[in-house]
Amino acid sequence: MYVAVKGGETAILNSHELLAAARRGDEGVPEISPAQIREQMRLGVARVMSEGALYDEELAALALKQAAGDQVEAIFLLRAYRTTLPRFGYSLPVDSGRMNIRRRISAAFKDLPGGQVLGPTYDYTQRLLDFSLHAPAACKLPPCADEPLPAAMPRVADLLGHEGLMEAELPPAGDPAPGDLSREPLRFPADRATRLQNLARGDEGFLLAMGYSTQRGYANSHPFAGEIRMGEVALEIVPEELGFPIAIGEITLTECQMINQFAGSSTVPPQFTRGYGLAFGEAERKAMAMALVDRALRAAELGEEVVAPAQQPEFVLSHSDNVEASGFVQHLKLPHYVDFQSELELLRKMRKRHEGRKKVSVTEGNPLFGTGGKAHTEIAVGENA
Amino acid sequence: MNTVAGYNFAYLDEQTKRMIRRALLKAVAIPGYQVPFGSREMPLPYGWGTGGIQVTASILGRSDVLKVIDQGSDDTTNAVNIRRFFAQTAGVATTDSTGEASIIQTRHRIPEKPLGEHQIMVYQVPLPEPLGRLEPREAVTRKLHALADYGLMHVKLYEDIARYGHIASTYDYPVLVNGRYLMAPSPIPKFDNPKLHMNPALQLFGAGREKRVYAIPPYTRVESLDFEDHPFSVQRWDEPCALCGTADSFLDEVVLDDAGGRMFVCSDSDYCKTRQGAGHTGSQSPIPAEAT
To answer: What is the rounded CA–CA span in Å between residue A24 and residue B222?
Structure first.
């Protein structure tokens, strides 16, 4: 006799315990702490903060520990927590021109005011596994430069702007307050501020592939890494009771300004256009990919032909969020007995019909050239019988 | 009341719940119309019922009795998980009984037992746009809805008939609500579509990932699309439920062995259990002790 499966609740609770044990691993190995993750896995932490849309290194590190290192799961944990947080207000726009720079490079100019600042980067390392890292080792800081960097570093794009070679970055007409994607649903057509918000939260792998596709001919954006800068910026708010801005802390940002060719139009002379990328923490790959995709998504606005996926806002923006994508792809694990039963029934019906048609074709001696109206009538009769 | 410390009643904060209720009121006012809302990240994954959970959270009161089903059953893992979520965050009473519930959150089924005016159905919706498979661009489908231009869907159904001899949709079968808006009923089998029509219960639909809610107010006309010469029909089975003997419920096929052995049982576990309790039997029913 068949007995319906019961006891789902106990099974779920047991699976939670198995999960906790699997996360801990061999208890002979010391347990990792969120502080260790925060300090020694900082790039992983940065990605969780960016795509989790919450700047909190402690919580991002905790999420990574809880997710056993699974970035997308950690991002999901942080997002779900973020929803529950009250809103005190909005910060003033951060000024990346006043960034306390730790890295700043331009691929467009050999030298420029403020200079090229390499900072901590994997770019110029040889990717040889360093077996000495098996053991703890002390590390030393390089000597300081003779003079400090200037407090305000001009952005490369602005240097070109003085000549009119670079499109001006102007607020849209009327300077409307940007929407807030975490409060309002994404609607189409989406303005650039909304698109950038979406991309900033978007999955790094997805943006990387999308940006890459524009380089390989699916859209043609002729990009130059005009400038990439990384460092700390002050976050300011204007409390209502004070009426003037106060700094509430600083955050680490990576910003990328891509410079792209633009042939011009009947009203606009030929000039360079911009693609913009911004991410929490040290996240150059993300910021660059985002800048490529941002520029590609401006195709319609700049009167370019929309021919590739990366230029289609609905395609890019609706599929960039890894919390949404991961949930929906994996929901296929949920039971679908009812739909499947319906499909089974349909398939059996269609096969029966197919079988009937084959028989008729054989009796008519004309299997290749269709069955004609008469045969169809016979099938219908056969099916009803 | 045992609720999780640090979280508001039913998880969402009151402002968010109010925002969702506003969207729901609009949805009720325009039956079948998809209302965008500021869907939140929930502690369950997108695609696993976040829309339904947000709708339930926003309408749930302390005196409500909640039933959660998935595939018609109260015991599937996701139904268990969502019921646990509300038991923990809201401390409300939960039930398996369709009759006792004031709110029924569902995935993929409508209970067999007819609903009453005191009840609210909350549907989990994966893809709210009925035209989405035919036209993926939302900017375009919105215009088609505004113009009530549903030719695309009629052509699709016609092509099904031309190719297969019948309409080849078996679940999430498109309906026209109140004679105006084309609506995706969520992936319920078309067997359940007639229950949408003139239902005394309020029916709310939540799509979390797609950030839309929509509604069918009580006693609203809901027609499944069809043609005069190809009228809408529902699935029928050749045999009754093997446990309760009913011939008019949706049946799941259960594989018994690897030699083609099959049996059919009610997908609605509460309906089946209630019938068995009332003495109905089927071909695979346990033999009562006194009869042996």
So the answer is: 53
Residues of B in contact with A187 (CB under 8 A): 36, 138
List, as ranges, residues 47-86 from A with C-beta within 8 Å of B.
76, 79-80, 82-84, 86
Contact with chain B for residue A339, Cβ under 8 A? yes
Residues A202 and A308 in one domain: yes
- Residue A135 domain-assigned (yes or no): no
- Could you say which of A293, A314, A331 is where a domain stops? A331
Q: Given CB atoms, is A373 within the 8 Å cutoff of chain B?
A: no
Q: Which residues of B touch A80 (CB under 8 A)?
A: 41-43
Instruction: Measure the CA–CA gap between B244 and A325, rounded to whole angstroms.
Output: 41
Q: What is the pTM of this model?
A: 0.88
Q: A228 with A256, same domain?
A: yes
Q: Is B37 on the interface with A (CB under 8 A)?
A: yes
Same domain, A160 and A67: no
Q: Do A76 and B256 touch (CB under 8 A)?
A: no
Q: Which of A314, A331, A348 is the last residue of a domain?
A: A331
Q: Both A306 and A217 in a single domain?
A: yes
In a domain, A129, yes or no: no
Q: Is there a single domain that holds both residue A56 and residue A18?
A: yes
Average per-residue pLDDT for chain B: 93
Q: Say which of B49, B206, B208, B241 is annotated catalytic.
A: B241
**In-domain check, residue A49:** yes
- Chain A contact for B164 (CB, 8 A cutoff): yes
Range of the domain at A72: 9-82
Chain B residues whose CB is inside 8 A of the A314 CB are 136-139
- The complex's ipTM works out to 0.86
Same domain, A105 and A249: yes
Chain A / chain B CB contacts < 8 angstroms? 149
The whole-angstrom separation of Cα A75 and Cα A219 is 30
Q: pLDDT (tens digit, 0 to 9) for every residue of chain B, 292 residues total?
A: 446 777 899 999 999 999 999 999 999 999 999 999 999 999 999 999 999 999 999 999 999 999 999 999 998 888 999 999 999 999 999 999 999 999 999 999 999 999 999 999 999 999 999 999 999 999 999 999 999 999 999 999 999 999 988 898 999 999 999 999 999 999 999 999 999 999 999 999 999 999 999 999 999 999 999 999 999 999 889 899 999 999 999 999 988 888 888 899 999 999 999 999 999 999 988 766 554 4
Cα–Cα–Cα angle for A239, A242, A243, rounded to 5 degrees: 80
CB contact under 8 A, A1 and B286: yes
The answer to whether B272 is a known catalytic residue is: yes
Q: Are residues A284 and A211 in the same domain?
A: yes
Residues A30 and A73 in one domain: yes
Q: For this structure, is B266 an active site residue?
A: yes
The number of domains in chain A is 3
> Which residues on chain B are in Cβ contact (under 8 Å) with A318?
138
- Report the candidate in B229, B223, B252, B220 with the shortest Cα–Cα distance to residue B239: B252
